Amino acid sequence: MCGIIGYVGPRECKQLLLHGLERLEYRGYDSAGIALLEDGRLTYTRAVGNLKNLRAEAGDSRSPATTGLGHTRWATHGGVTEANAHPLAAEQPEKLAIVLNGIVENYRELRERLVEAGHVFASETDAETVTH
Ligand code: GLU
Questions:
Q1: Would residue 39 be called left, alpha or beta, if left means φ above 0 and alpha means ψ between -120 and 50 degrees?
Q2: Is a pLDDT exceeding 90 seen at residue 28?
Q3: Test site for ligand 1: of 21, 31, 77, 123, most ligand atoms within 8 A of the Cβ
Q4: Statement: residue 26 has pLDDT above 90
């Protein structure tokens, strides 16, 4: 279980995402994170623990982003660490971010194949296979 929120629209979305995650916090409180599309590049803020930590990390500064993604994690695969917090990215973090609710059941085989093909993983999660 986890909480997911995304926004694409005319409004600055940093605070919208953080507020939305607060309402979804009961769905996962191991870690939380947001990805914001700023000047054509994704930027990430992630924190372990409850949402207050993400709020502190994100700060009060405004972001021009009007597209973004947020997640509160209930860890199933991989420890409760910042590296395992979503949104997750792959080789081009400025271009692609994902969040996942649930489990990628065959992630071990997928990961093995991807590693053989030269992919480098940054987290221990099952979810990261999706980004690759
Ligand atoms: N299986 C994923 C993970 O542990 C997502 C868990 C969730 O639904 O929050 O990272």
A1: left
A2: no
A3: 77
A4: no
Neighbours of 115 (CB within 10 A): 12
What strands lie across the sheet with 67-73, from one edge to the other? 3-8, 67-73, 31-38, 41-48
Q: Which residue owns the Cα nearest ligand 1 atom 1?
A: 103
Four-residue CA torsion sign, 105, 109, 115, 119: negative
**Residue-wise pLDDT tens digits, 97-114:** 999 999 999 999 999 999
Distance CA(65)–CA(7), nearest Å, equals: 10
102 lines ligand 1 (CB under 6 A): yes
Residues 47, 56: Cα–Cα separation, whole Å: 9
Average pLDDT (33-49) is 97
Instruction: Answer whether 75 contacts ligand 1 (Cβ < 6 A).
Output: yes
Alpha carbon of 75 to ligand 1 centroid (Å): 5
Q: For ligand 1, what atom is nearest to the CA of residue 76?
A: 4
